[in-house]
Amino acid sequence: MHNKLEMAQDKFMEGIGKLAESVGVSRFIAQLYAVLYLSDRPLSLDDLVERLKASKGNISLNIRELEKWGGVKNIWVKGSRKDYYEADPDIKKFVLKKIRSGVQKRIGQVTDMMDEFKELINSGNDEMGDEDKMIVKTYHEKLKNIENMKSLADKALMLADKLL
């Protein structure tokens, strides 16, 4: 590969890595996907080791994660016993699926936190004075705002499903 092309690919991988990290995705996984996405042919684990300067074990582990996400697939190459991989070229589908998964996880965490919060504020209601009961009432009103936001996120996920 020409030096200028390799430099351009490195810049692209660096940018993708930073972007992924900013949304909570592993920098290395994003860079691995970027190498495969830019490649005009399937790449073996050895090719990826050479290109990313990482261990075969690390690449293998992260390739499996990308396979789970639907971002890459294992490709058979006639005459070779090595494992080869290529990126799913439909980057929109892959990215939306990953964003959807992350949002679902966060919604689950918020739901669990809210359930625990509700249980705690309701558990001593019989023993509370009027002032504390007013605070509990205010908390419930504020929780409704969070539930509305959660509902909006659920609707956004349904829209993402339609896009996929």
Give a quick summary of the entry.
The protein is mainly alpha-helical.
What would your notes on this structure say?
This protein has 164 residues and is mainly alpha-helical. It folds into two domains: 3-88, Arc Repressor Mutant, subunit A; 92-163. The protein contains six helices and three strands. The protein has helices at 3-22, 27-38, 45-52, 56-69, 91-123, 130-163; strands at 43-44, 72-75, 84-87. Strands 1-3-2 form a three-stranded antiparallel beta sheet. β2 and β3 form a beta hairpin. α1 (3-22) crosses α2 (27-38), α2 (27-38) packs across α4 and α5 (91-123) packs antiparallel against α6. The longest helix is centred in the last third of the chain and has 34 residues, at 130-163. The radius of gyration is 23 Å and the shape is elongated. The relative contact order is 0.08. The model has no long low-confidence stretch (mean pLDDT 88).
Helical fraction equals over 70%
Count of beta strands: 3
How many separate helices? 6
- Rg to the nearest angstrom? 23 Å
Any idea what the CATH superfamily of the largest domain is called? Winged helix-like DNA-binding domain superfamily/Winged helix DNA-binding domain
CATH class of the largest domain: Mainly Alpha
Q: Distance between termini? A: 35 Å
| Overall number of structural domains | 2
Largest sheet features: 3 strands, antiparallel
Alpha-beta content class: mainly alpha
Enumerate the strands of the largest sheet in spatial order, edge to edge or round the barrel: 1-3-2
Query: Strand percentage, roughly?
Result: 5-15%
CATH topology of the largest domain: Arc Repressor Mutant, subunit A
> Can you give the mean pLDDT?
88
- Uncertain segments are none
Element order: H for helix, E for strand: HHEHHEEHH
Outline, from the CA principal axes? elongated
